[in-house]
Amino acid sequence: MTTEVAQRASMDEATRYLVSKYSPKGNRAGWLMMASILVEAWDLYSIAFVLVFVREQFSPDPLLLGLAAAGTQGGALVGAMIGGWLSDKVGRRFMFLATMYMFIFFALVQGIVPSVGWLVVVRFILGVPLGSDISNSYTYIMEAMPKGQREVMGNRWQFMFAVGEVLTLGVIALFIIADLNHEWIWRVTLALGAVPAAIILFLRHDLPETAVWLVRRGRYVEAKKVTLQMFGDNLDMLPDHDVTVPKPRLTGFLADLRKDPIRWRATLYGYIACFCQGSEFSTFAFYMPVLFVTIGVSSILGTDLVTMGLFVIAGISGLVGPMITPKIGHRGISMWGFGIVFVSLLVAAAAIYTNHPGVLPFICATMLWGHYWDASNCMTIPTVVARPEYRGTASGFAYMFVKAPSFLAIFLFPSLFTAIGQAGATLFVAIFPLIGFLAAAFLLPEVYGFDQD
């Protein structure tokens, strides 16, 4: 056996050993990585509710206002592309610290911008660390927690989204009730995103680099120190000195995936599910006005409170989904989630066609319940099946498929909604959960507990 082959075998053995270990510190690290979702949820949903105040102050044209809303989505698309790759190159710890510092700064800056044009620029830049941090956080979770538990933690991202959304809407409701000046409401709300980011940065600061990344880079001395700190284990199967390891190339990522049919099929499913869930949720906003009119909501405060109620239901779904994933698997939670959304949209279209809008509030709640299941594992799956040397890149690629439809829907769907009407647009959106359901049923292999690290 050559030295290179023997070295690769010892790294593989150490990696498999590490993902079989449990430590409360690893569980804490997982929750701290999931907490970054709160930051993204705050930014994404605060702008949706304060945009009316931005328009009131600056009276921008619709395109510029739309860019202000979509700016972080576009920036997150860029951040996902480069952030995951950088995570593989320079390490998980460096990236999760750098992205939080960057977000805190630009979150504060967006609260003092002098115009909508500057708001667009700042929000685009702000999206870069958001997209990067999500992909990096998933990578850290898959390397800091044991198989079986890391999938459950990864699937909690929708629950964290719901928590962030409810907190954001609650703060905005308090500002409106306090009759705060409208300019102060949008500026303070956007800048307040820096607060949870600063708390997360403080709590994350002492987290070590993942032992898996250190092992794959041949930095055995540091890896042994980390595993001793995290697990009380010294990784005796590895030598007490560092070794030189060839650096992984970006071009090798997809080639490596094609070598393993399970990895390849699971990753393809992850990309499809990311795109489908991103599309169905991004277009969901266009059903909200129908819902509000149906139940007699006309004020900004009423809209805020009703939306908060919907996301409380979504949060419960996001909590239940990961809990039952060990019992029904990734395929089960995906098929149930996409199936619920598909049926909900068909019923919604029928209700609109037959002029029975009274059922729409219940359909919206049901759709959100299903969505928070089908979206739960679309990032987990491609990240967990990737080889450690490409794991950041794999996570970043997957997140691109979440952000691309989110960005496009803001510009393309309004025209479609106007052209073919509410019922027609509802049937169109139903295409996405149908594709997701079929992909889960016929493409996705069951990869819960995947351990070929």
CATH topology: Growth Hormone, Chain: A
Main beta-sheet strand count, sense and barrel state: none
- Quaternary structure state of the chains depicted: single chain
State the helicity in percent bands: over 70%
Q: What is the CATH superfamily?
A: MFS general substrate transporter like domains
Order of SSEs: HHHHHHHHHHHHHHHHHHHH
Strand content: under 5%
The tally of domains stands at 1
Poorly predicted spans: none
Total number of helical segments? 20
Assign an overall shape: globular
Total strands: the figure is 0
Main traits of this protein?
453 residues, mainly alpha, Growth Hormone, Chain: A, 79% helix
Describe the protein's architecture and organization.
This protein is an all-alpha fold. It has one domain (35-207, 248-442): Growth Hormone, Chain: A (Up-down Bundle), CATH 1.20.1250. It is built from 20 helices and no strands. Helix 2 (24-34) packs antiparallel against helix 6 (116-144) and helix 3 (36-58) runs antiparallel to helix 6 (116-144).
Summarize the structure.
With 453 residues, this protein is an all-alpha fold. Helices cover 79% and strands 0% of the residues. It is globular, with a radius of gyration of 22 Å.
Walk me through the topology.
Blueprint: H1 3-18, H2 24-34, H3 36-58, H4 62-90, H5 92-110, H6 116-144, H7 149-154, H8 157-177, H9 182-191, H10 194-204, H11 211-216, H12 220-231, H13 252-258, H14 261-284, H15 288-294, H16 300-353, H17 360-374, H18 380-385, H19 391-429, H20 431-442
